[in-house]
Amino acid sequence: MSVLENWNQWKDFLGDRLNQAQDQGMNKEAMGDLAYQIGDYLAKNVDPKNEQERVLTDLWSVASPDEQHAIATMMVKLVQNNGSK
């Protein structure tokens, strides 16, 4: 099963990547920019695998760039304490 198929696994995966980025010294602004780029890529190129991803994709599709940055920032906050670290 792909990590994208299960919402909790997806959040854990993102949390692990966030922890790695923080450990390597990436600042919050850079993490937010990267989250925006990943969100934009996923919205344009990956079919949502669960209901939560569908909601995010739908919100992303109607959001302005500023709102998309806000969504990306909220996703970073959501997974900040997730992951296996």
Automatic annotation (TrEMBL):
A Pfam entry, by short name: DUF3243
Domain of life: Bacteria
Full protein name: DUF3243 domain-containing protein
